[in-house]
Amino acid sequence: MRNKIKTLWVTISFCLILMGCNTVKSPKMDSYGGLLRVEQQPEGSTRRTNPFYTDRGAWIGFGIHENKNVTGFCGPYDLDGRTWLSSALLQIGTAPTGELNLLSRDSSCYYPDRLWMRLRGKDMEVEQTLKQVSSTTAILHIKNRSSKVLWIYGNLNQGKWTLVGNTLWSKLPNGELLLLSFKAGVKLNCDQGKYEACLEKADTEIVLTHYANPITLEKALVAVEAVLEQSRTLSVQHTARWANYISSNTRRELSMQEHRIMVKSIMTLMSNWRSAKKELKHDGVVPSHVADYFVGFWAWDSWKHAVALAQIDPALAKDQVRAMFDFQDSVGMIADCIYTDHRENNYRDSKPPLAAWAVNAIYEADHDLSFVREMYDKLVLYHQWWFRYRDHNKNGICEYGATDGTLEAAKWESGMDNAIRYDSTQMLWNEEGAWSMNQESVELSAYLELERKYLLHFAELLSVPFRGKKEPYLAMDYFFDQEQGYYFDRKLDGALIPCFGPEGWSPLWTGLATVPQAEAVIRVMQDTAKFASFVPFPTAALDNAKFMDRGYWRGPIWLDQVYFAVSGLRKYGYQKEADLYTKQVFERLEGLSDNGPIHENYEARTGKRLKAPHFSWSAAHLFLLYKELKTPQQKK
């Protein structure tokens, strides 16, 4: 009885959300169908650059087969091993495999919370909906609108099935466990990696379970039985979660096109969510599951993801931060990136110090002081690490550097790997395992000063002594050039490096610029010969002789820097201009307003997409740009 009441309550709650009975009226879930293409070609020699449907931190993904004769969703795809476990594990037919199938695909779509497909045949219509309801579990709901019997069949690319009751299970070559479970009354048979199931019920669920972490078969079988019993409830709860993601961030005063960008951003973040696995102790968001080299967690990506996730899923935001600090070393350093196999972790360099920004954003979202308390000492240690190991001349101004003495790793530490300002940079030895660039970077000092303020704020919240300086480290005047009206890096001998880049507006984003300095920088930012390009705020000034449309950090648009620019404008009262630039970004990035994925970077002069598709920090900053758009009423 208790379970029935719980199920009824969840159902009622979900219906209220969709009806708009919550505080913010949200368009229905189906309004956001087709925001991203998930068409795949498993049999092709190269994988498509389309993302997969995956959710809740699962390590497998699914898609819609480009071949319309395939009557099931393609996959699962192993997102860690980068291989197809099956081209289509759950195909639907009117007869056993190998015989004439009278069904063909009529239509299909990727919605935020599910994959959906409709099949048609003579006097037949079959709908199937796939939802990834947990990190281990996907539920396929099949609705047969005729009295005809259906057959389900599919092949594993590697491994074989073993039948236990109504469950097929296989230990994959990598040692992970895959189970396919049917409700009672289904007739099953299997032969090596092939199986067939006869479905006589018109409406049923099939549960596909993938365990990326070790588990005994006995425990897995018990767990899957519970899922089969609660499949409808789990499905409703899953969709209610997505309805809440969307409704809690919908702004009625904004356009549907702007809503769609917000939802696409959330979909990007959530489908890049990976659960704790092997040596990754907490969940987090990978930069892009489409790019093979982005299967771990990166430090400053993580801070940026967490700031956006704080307004979407604060629990995931906290785990994203924890995941990186799990690998903080004894002296306070945070690794550049971490993986399921620690041998791939990169300690040659760290990344810009934005972790306190992330922790503050999470606190502002849910006011969980226990999380601030959990992170405080770790943040302090990381902050102190910079001044011990990255201040060559001990003048209180830090430099980017490396543990191995290479300029390559030091550039990685800045995050702007090949920026023009580093073209004449050299490395200096500080002590064993600690090297610095021979230049002081304006944004590093701005970030550290912002971090100092957050740490002071956290100490006050926690009522603990502040272990740091209560006065600012330095005024941004040190980096400001009056003649050119802009902030520049300096060599350690004091010489300015007069290269116009996005680091120059970091004092605006951090609120550290004086008003006259901010006004001067904004004039440069609005100069069409420098930063007011077709898509605004490139990573190098347009009139720089070394500007390159596809030059990584030597010209293309990176949305984190665009966000810092727009947010900086807002801090100094330029709301109208900030809105204008935000809308230019929304309207001019290739593929953003249709079904293309969000990319790592874009051409400034054309908006054409460049590097990795389905990029999380780009999605995070598009989401933040959306959240900070001002309305006419707000402007008054």
Automatic annotation (TrEMBL):
Domain Mannosylglycerate hydrolase MGH1-like glycoside hydrolase, chain residue ranges per copy:
298-618
Q: Name one GO molecular function term.
A: Glc3Man9GlcNAc2 oligosaccharide glucosidase activity
| Gene3D superfamilies documented for this protein | 1.50.10.10, putative glycoside hydrolase family protein from bacillus halodurans
Highest taxon, organism lineage: Bacteria
Q: What Pfam families does the annotation carry?
A: MGH1-like_GH
What's in the keyword line of the UniProt record?
Glycosidase, Hydrolase
Which biological process terms from the Gene Ontology are attached to this UniProt entry? oligosaccharide metabolic process; protein N-linked glycosylation
Chain ranges passing through the membrane: none
Name the family: Belongs to the glycosyl hydrolase 63 family.
Q: What is this protein called?
A: Glycoside hydrolase
